[in-house]
């Protein structure tokens, strides 16, 4: 049963209908905006359909409009990989203010360019420049003689040493306290060393300087190497020292080199030492010059009592020319100690004449238990070892001894025709005694004796190698 409202007329109902329509229109607009926002951010779960969805073969970026992009057709060489991307709808993304547009930048990214380093400056050029600066500034490079004596003090570490090392430390400490620093006692334990600095031949302003040092006989030369390196302004490892043409190292002591009073060393750097050795080896392989022999050139001759008149060997002077010997000893040249020390700065004179030079020569340093100094010989690879031993005996002064007369006579008779010998003694016992006293010296290379009839070139030796003479 309905009750009719008679208070409202037709106009009133028209106004009410109009208000309802406006209210419904506003609600529809609000619902439309909310559905758009939800579709972009988060979708409400929907009821799953029972039917199977059809799978599309298209990729995601082609099925979804959010992933659509305009890709460049070809990648140009002038632009980088990021310059060909163009992102659309940047403002619609949630983080639009944090993204940058890459399509506008056409400049390539700057990359670091590597520069080839310059070549290393040679050491002699650096030394030459230093000397020029010192000369321009007027600085005199003088250093005082360093004190090479260091005190050996025992501390708490002695208790942690081995018994042998602890005993050696106590012995060394007692020796140091026996002769305190500054006292005049014990002068025989000191040796005087004069070091001559050899500059590089290509260094224009290089000068030879001589410095004198004093050190103990029992100390090694490590402190001396450090002092010379400090004076030359180079590293201690780059210092090379030689004594009579033989190189020695910082771990050696004066007693090992048989230095009891004084000695003179030649010091240089490794670059100069290698350069001088290379020049000396190159000069030893050069053919001799054909300059005429002057009348002022003199040489010494050491004769041996034998049956051959040609049995002699020439000892060259500082500027002398070689002579021609008749036997195999002409292949051997004797060089004195001073010449052996300076062989690196001047080319040695060859012992061969131009018509006899048939191959390269090289130097050998001979040492024995009966000689105090080493003897340097220049030989050819075809020289017999017996001729080298014979030349060694002549230079050492053993040629006039009776115990080597048989060896020298056999070496002389091997290269010449035999001549009548003296009559033997009638006493058989005396002849047996003389024969038993004869000695046959030989060369010893790496602990192995070499026959006197063997050529020295078969022993695989190099220039400057040291061999021993045994059997003396």
Automatic annotation (TrEMBL):
**Compositional bias of kind Basic residues:** 97-112, 419-428
Residue ranges with Low complexity bias = 284-298
Provide the residue span(s) of the region labelled Disordered: 1-153, 171-190, 280-331, 411-435
Q: What is this protein called?
A: Rad60/SUMO-like domain-containing protein
Bias (Basic and acidic residues) occurs at 1-27, 62-78, 85-94
């Amino acid at each position: 049963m309905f009750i009719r409202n008679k208070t409202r007329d037709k106009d009133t109902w028209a106004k009410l209908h109009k208000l309802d329509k406006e209210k419904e229109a506003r609600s529809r607009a609000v619902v439309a905006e909310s559905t758009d926002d939800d579709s972009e951010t988060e979708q409400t779960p929907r009821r799953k359909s029972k039917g199977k969805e059809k799978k599309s073969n298209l990729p995601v970026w082609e099925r979804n409009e959010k992933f659509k992009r305009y890709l460049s057709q070809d990648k140009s060489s002038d632009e980088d990989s990021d310059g060909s991307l163009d992102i659309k709808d940047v403002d619609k993304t949630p983080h639009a203010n944090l993204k940058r547009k890459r399509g506008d930048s056409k400049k390539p990214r700057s990359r670091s360019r590597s520069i080839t380093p310059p070549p290393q400056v040679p050491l002699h050029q650096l030394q030459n420049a230093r000397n020029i600066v010192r000369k321009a500034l007027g600085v005199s490079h003088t250093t005082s003689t360093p004190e090479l004596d260091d005190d050996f003090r025992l501390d708490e570490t002695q208790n942690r040493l081995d018994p042998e090392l602890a005993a050696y430390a106590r012995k060394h400490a007692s020796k140091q306290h026996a002769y305190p620093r500054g006292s005049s006692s014990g002068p025989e334990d000191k040796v005087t060393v004069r070091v001559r600095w050899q500059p590089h031949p290509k260094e224009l302003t290089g000068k030879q300087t001589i410095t004198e040092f004093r050190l103990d006989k029992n100390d090694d030369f490590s402190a001396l190497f450090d002092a010379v390196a400090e004076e030359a302004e180079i590293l201690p490892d780059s210092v090379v020292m030689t004594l009579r043409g033989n190189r020695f190292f910082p771990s050696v002591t004066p007693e090992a080199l048989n230095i009891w009073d004084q000695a003179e060393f030649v010091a240089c750097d490794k670059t100069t030492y290698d350069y001088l050795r290379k020049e000396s080896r190159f000069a030893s392989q050069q053919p001799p010059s054909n300059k005429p022999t002057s009348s002022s050139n003199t040489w010494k001759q050491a004769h041996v009592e034998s049956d051959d008149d040609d049995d002699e060997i020439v000892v060259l002077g500082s500027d002398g020319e070689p002579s021609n010997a008749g036997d195999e000893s002409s292949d051997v040249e004797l060089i004195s100690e001073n010449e052996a020390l300076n062989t690196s700065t001047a080319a040695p004179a060859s012992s061969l004449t131009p018509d006899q030079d048939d191959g390269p020569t090289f130097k050998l340093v001979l040492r024995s238990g009966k000689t105090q100094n080493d003897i340097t010989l220049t030989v050819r690879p075809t020289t017999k070892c017996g001729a080298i031993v014979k030349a060694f005996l002549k230079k050492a002064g053993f040629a006039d001894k009776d115990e080597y007369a048989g060896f020298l006579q056999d070496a002389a008779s091997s290269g010449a025709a035999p001549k009548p010998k003296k009559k033997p003694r009638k006493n058989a016992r005396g002849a047996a005694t003389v024969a038993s006293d004869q000695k046959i010296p030989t060369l010893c290379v790496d602990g192995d004796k070499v026959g006197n009839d063997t050529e020295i070139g078969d022993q695989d030796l190099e220039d400057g190698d040291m061999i021993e003479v045994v059997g003396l």
